[in-house]
Design brief:
Blueprint (H helix, E strand, L loop, with lengths): L15 H17 L16 H9 L1 E5 L5 E3 L2 E3 L4 H9 L6 E6 L5 H14 L3 E6 L2
Parallel strand pairs: 1-4, 4-5
Antiparallel strand pairs: 1-2, 2-3
Length: 131
């Protein structure tokens, strides 16, 4: 009788390739995923003669390239913009508001103004650009 190691009858499976595949899949899904929180902004686009007539009745907020803000033709300080817009709305949340920016105004400034107007409670807000 001879005692010793017995030879395995099956093949040995190496786990190294399996681990490599798992790490490759992990890297692939990490690169393919986006961890940013993207928010969409609803914009209404209007065209034609009806848009010109309706913009006369709308509250126009002008963002100027020199950093100033005007509501209609009246210059307004940035700190008092919220109270001026709230006074113009007077409970009519469906009143149309148009935010128009001059060329050279940063988009973030227009989005901040849009957020401020939406916080007041306005529901009919649109962005425009100066031609």
């Amino acid at each position: 009788m001879q005692f010793g190691r017995q030879q395995p009858t099956g093949r040995l499976i190496s786990l190294t390739p399996l681990i490599d595949v798992v790490f490759i899949l992990l890297v692939f899904f990490m690169l393919a995923s986006s961890f940013l929180d993207w928010r969409a902004i609803d914009l209404s686009v209007s065209s034609g003669a009806g848009a010109a007539a309706s913009s006369q009745r709308a509250i126009l907020i002008s963002l100027r390239s020199d950093g100033s803000i005007a509501v209609g033709a009246t210059p307004v300080a940035t700190q008092s913009l919220q109270s001026v817009i709230a006074a113009k709305l007077k409970g009519n949340r469906a009143q149309r508001i148009v935010i128009r920016s001059d060329p050279g105004v940063q988009l973030q400034r227009a989005v901040d103004t849009l957020d401020l107007v939406r916080r007041i409670g306005a529901t009919n807000v649109s962005l425009s650009r100066k031609r």
